[in-house]
Structure formats: structure tokens, C-alpha cells
Design goal:
The complex is a heterodimer of chains A (188) and B (73). With 188 residues, chain A is an alpha+beta fold. Chain A contains 9 helices and 4 strands. In chain A, α2 (18-27) runs parallel beside α3. The mean pLDDT of chain B is 91. Classes of the chains: A alpha+beta (188), B alpha+beta (73).
């Protein structure tokens, strides 16, 4: 079974479309529906992922539903990154989930501390790092291999690359480093 | 009832749903309290339940080959 990272790594076109990411996840058969909602937000929470089994009639066969909320007032680039990051959580392993009240309470507690402050649980660690995984999908290796030399040569600026990918520049900057290639390679 | 209680009720109090997982995307986590996070999460879940927000994220753009982008002036 091809991983989502391997699948998108060979993409040479930008911007990567969210609907293609969604379609790939749905074709895995783990999730029966993904809804993405623009929400009004007022604090620093700009994205939420929720998955549940729908027990109501006529869905008594436990289809897994995923709902994603993103800030309606964030930039288009931030909205795209948040939605991609949250969609990838559909593929999280069982151990990275928070299925009970105690697990959700632990996740919240873990999320609001510095990563180096104390050891945090796997669900929070996955939550912390999944935007890097989203960047692996939204900034495919094959496209980056073409763009990086032009960026290094100064013929394309960070702002131009970010606009082409329709992503926030400060996140795109990370993907244009040599170290990024090593990180993204390991994801495949 | 605290905001965390409200969040737990939103996730676990609906008999038509069996909760599986939740995740958050927080910017500036150090400035956010657990209570604020829960309040915001409840608000987002309620908005999704009510279907008040846009659910059609429009991607009207054309894709372009990276080589074309690099070659463009």
C-alpha cells in the first residue's frame, strides 16, 4: 500500500490540491466521510480534528466520520496547511489517538507545555509534529528538487515559492533547506 | 461546569456518536490556557454541528509544473 508521503513526493505540480489529499485518504478506506468547516475563532486555536463513529440511523455499520475545523479568518495559506495537517490525522495509528476522557485531558495538558519541558504522550507528540508531515505532502520532494536550485541561486524568492505553493512563507522556508530533503526522504 | 467539562460533553455526551479521536492546531500554545483551548474547541464543534460555516473550500487555481514556475520571469 503506497503511503501518502510516497504518493505525493513524486508530484511536480504546485499548488497541491486539498481535494486530492482528501481523495487519497478516502481511497484508503479508513474513513467514510471527511467534512471541512470554516469556523470563527478568537484565540490561538486555529484547527481542530474530530473523528467519531456515527451510530445514528441509517449508519449502524459504524462508518468513521472525520470533521475538520479551521479558522475562517486565517490566511488562505494557513487554512490550507491546517486542513492538510488535520486530514493527515485520519491516518494516525491507534496509539496516537485520544479515545477516552482521560486521554483527551492528557492531550490538552501535554499540548500546552514546551516540548522539552517534560515527556509528553504520543497523541500530543503527533499533534505537535503533524504540520511537518503536512508540509511533506504540500511541498512535494520532486517539485522541491526543481525549485530549490533556483531558490539557492536567487532567481526565485521565498515569497514567490510560497505564492506558487499557496502556503505561508515562514513554513515554506523550512522546506527549502538541504536538511528538509533528508527529513522528507525518511517519511516515505 | 468548566469549559473542559463542556468539551467532554460535546465529545462523549452524544449517544448517536462514538468518539474516536481529537486533535488541535494551536499557534502560540504558551499563551493559551487549557480553559481557553477547551472554550474555543467547544465553539468550533458547535459551529460544525450547526453547519454555520463554509464547507466548500474553493480551490479555483490552476496547477503548474515546477519547471514552468522556475523558467517563468
Amino acid at each position: 500500500m503506497t503511503s501518502i508521503y510516497k504518493h505525493f513526493a513524486k508530484e511536480t505540480r504546485l499548488p497541491v490540491r486539498l481535494r486530492d489529499i482528501q481523495q487519497f485518504i478516502l481511497e484508503k478506506g479508513v474513513v467514510s466521510r471527511i467534512e471541512r468547516h470554516a469556523c470563527q475563532t478568537k484565540n490561538s486555536l486555529i484547527g481542530i480534528f474530530q473523528s467519531y463513529y456515527d451510530l445514528a440511523q441509517p449508519y449502524c455499520e459504524h462508518p468513521l466520520i472525520v470533521r475538520i475545523g479551521y479558522s475562517a479568518t486565517a490566511s488562505e495559506g494557513a487554512q490550507r496547511l491546517v486542513q492538510a495537517k488535520e486530514m493527515l490525522h485520519s491516518l494516525d495509528q491507534q496509539a496516537a489517538r485520544s479515545p477516552t476522557e482521560a486521554a483527551v485531558a492528557q492531550l490538552i495538558d501535554d499540548l500546552l507545555v514546551e516540548a522539552a519541558e517534560r515527556e509528553i504522550g504520543l497523541p500530543a507528540a503527533v499533534d505537535h509534529l503533524n504540520f511537518l508531515n503536512a508540509l511533506c505532502v504540500l511541498m512535494p520532494l520532486a517539485a522541491l528538487d526543481i525549485i530549490r536550485p533556483a531558490f539557492k541561486a536567487g532567481t526565485k524568492t521565498l515569497a514567490q515559492v510560497a505564492a506558487e505553493a499557496r502556503l505561508p512563507a515562514h513554513f515554506v522556508r523550512v522546506t527549502l533547506t538541504d536538511e528538509w530533503r533528508e527529513f522528507a526522504d525518511k517519511k516515505q | 461546569m468548566t469549559n473542559q467539562d463542556h468539551l467532554m460533553a460535546a465529545l462523549f455526551g452524544n449517544s448517536a456518536r462514538e468518539h474516536v479521536d481529537i486533535k488541535f492546531f494551536v499557534l502560540g500554545a504558551m499563551e493559551l490556557t487549557a480553559d481557553q483551548l477547551c472554550e474555543e474547541a467547544v465553539s468550533m464543534l458547535e459551529q460544525m454541528d450547526a453547519g454555520v460555516g463554509d464547507v466548500e473550500f474553493v480551490e479555483a487555481f490552476e496547477q503548474r509544473e515546477a519547471a514552468e514556475f522556475v523558467a517563468s520571469i
